Amino acid sequence: MKFPGPRRWRVLKFGCSRRWRVLKFGCSRRWRVLKFGCSRRWRVLKCIACVVVGLGCALSAQASERTGLAFVDADVGAEYSQAVGLELSFTDKNGLALDGTTACGGTCRVSVELRPSDGSGSVVQVTAPDVVVDAAGRARVRLTLVNGTHGGAEFLSDDAGFDYTLSARFRGAGAPLPDNDDVDCQEGAAGTVDGRLCPATATGALKVFPEVPALAFSQDVDMALADTVTLAATLSDSTGDADAAGEDIEGPGEKVLAGFPIRFFYDVDDDGRPSGDELLGEAITNDFGVAAFEFTADPAFAQAGVYDAGLHAEFPGDERYGTARTAVKLTLRARGPDATKTIIEVDPGTLPADGVSEALVRVRLVDADNNLLGPDAPEHEVAIVTSLGLLQESVERDVLDGTYSQVIRVQRKGGTAKIEVTLDGDDAGSAELVIEGREGCTCTSSTSSPTPLGLGLLALPILLRRRRA
After folding, report:
1. Cβ proximity of 398 and 405 under 8 Å
2. Which of these, 147, 150, 164, lies nearest to 320 by C-alpha position?
3. End of a domain among 333, 365, 392?
4. Torsion angle of the four alpha carbons 112, 117, 119, 120, in this order, in degrees rounded to the nearest 10
5. Is the residue at 458 inside a domain?
6. What pTM does this model have?
7. 303-314, pLDDT tens digit by residue?
8. Beta strands in 218-340 (DSSP E)
9. CATH number at residue 112
10. Residue 421 domain-assigned?
11. 39-82 confidence digits (pLDDT tens)
12. How many domains does one find in the chain?
């Protein structure tokens, strides 16, 4: 590089002879190489800069640039088997975004790890390899809890959220690589930035909650007392595991859960809340997520009827999955009727022998366990006969309560009617209807002898006809 003027002016122009260069820069050749890494050309340029800026070339220190790193969302949460997206901002000391594609002499990288906040367990490396910072100064990390684990480390969960601490780190850039103890990276370090970037760290919090599973019976249960049926309940994760390489928080679809205990209950008091003394037993879900349990409707504790939520199933939950419950409609039919327990009712039990009054004969079927057979029980053949009075139409079954009935109309004859019932051809008992009137009397004509006055009145029309003739 040439400048006009004699050598003297060149010396004045640069303000430095060799001696001045040594004094001005405070460096021998060794110091120039080590401290400034400069050739003769760099010394010339350095000298020019001193003159132009007017700062002189006094002895000064160099400083690496401090950087900033922070989680965009410092507190995040995820359920077991879900995914959570973590985002970090990478900035300079003034809070301005650094271009992660060029600021480090290439791409800038950030590592993320976590461990339980209570200090238990080991540190889990979330990023492997380290994540790249983009041109907007953002680094994005996807943490998936597939099967409750990440990187082979198993996660814990809690209904209130199990706490984990997230730690992110930018290791710095440049040669030699600075660290946090480097004087050039300390607060207040002065001088011109030397092109190196200081390391930075950030912390965040992650809460892991139990995944909420689904539990369902295969179908409603309809059975007779003393019978045995197989109850089947399926346990599943309705959304499945999040894809480690995808973008969705949830998985692609249902995933059945095998190897988990399911408890079964019979709601004896029909209050909709199963309790410990109503526990039937427990079964483990198979490879299809189904727990099967044999249930016998023992008449010792079960009663015939229809219960909207008679049977319950429960998954008690564990460190990964939350509690799941379900209930199913239970129809308990009484066993076949016992003819000897048949109930026969006559209403009213007493009628006048007037030829028009009626009484209703109602028959209730009962099984051997003293359970009334309701409308859901199979229909049976019921026949009614009476020794006095006339039966109207035929026996009818009430679709609301399952009883059988027939109407009986009295005649003009008093007495006690014996009403007998047969059930499927077998004698099922009898009942009585009292008809008030003189026994053996049809009450259609008088049974007393006519008086002389009566005979005379009967003969009067005959005499009158004779006289007219």
Report:
1. yes
2. 147
3. 333
4. -90
5. no
6. 0.60
7. 888 899 999 999
8. 221-224, 228-237, 255-256, 261-266, 279-284, 290-296, 305-315, 324-333
9. 2.60.40.10
10. yes
11. 444 444 444 443 333 333 333 344 578 889 999 999 999 888 88
12. 4
